Amino acid sequence: MKKPLFLLSNDDGYYAEGLSMLVNSMREMADVVIVAPDQNCSGVSHKISLSTPLRLREVAKDSYALNGSPADCIHIALHVILKGQKPDCVISGINHGINLGEDTAYSGTVAAAYEGQVHGIPSIAVSTDRTNINAFHFRNAALAARMFAKKLLNHEVPSDAMWNLNVPPSTCKGIKFTRLDNRSFQSSIIERKDPRGNPYYWIGPYHPVYEATEGTDYEAFQSGYISATPIKVEMTHNQILNRMTEAVESNLFEAFQNESK
Question: Domain spanning 5-181+212-236: which CATH class is it, in words?
């Protein structure tokens, strides 16, 4: 029986341990093509390289490193390597660090899975955190990704959303379907001087503060559960849209006309 075809990528770079663990886990059930950035691209979000030439390097059979973003990797994989053939699943990760709540907007890991979903391919982003001894342990995340991929292929979970999985690095109590948490962005800017005395800047330590309300991905993860969040690309704020009436539209257009007088 023919194996399914999986396209794997990440944002930590081709040689990241998390990607290696993901590849080893998926090869037990699928034929695998890997296209990943040739360097760490954490935090690049959904960047697409429109003005930079992209160079693809074959590292091993069906394994490639690209001098581009995670989203670039999916484009190149689909249109150059696979030449229009759709894989059965796109899986991005295993990310070295959690992607929870509104931080998913910054994640290159999530963006690669988004790009797969945009192309109509069932897609998963998978992330994990450090253990209490400050080391990454990817086994749980690799098992969770493989389990979820099987469920997608068997149509036991819907495939018309991109699934964002965050997996505890040690004991898992279960799995919960969740929504994204809200968080406040708390960062700092560190200023330095170069040898010529000119200032340059680092975006300093980033410590998000989550609401941790019931039913959110952060609350589930912190309680020891695998969080599975269905994410869609359409970003319309429907609650606000539903509050906008024809009267408000007319009022705004009248204000627009007054501006032109």
Answer: alpha beta
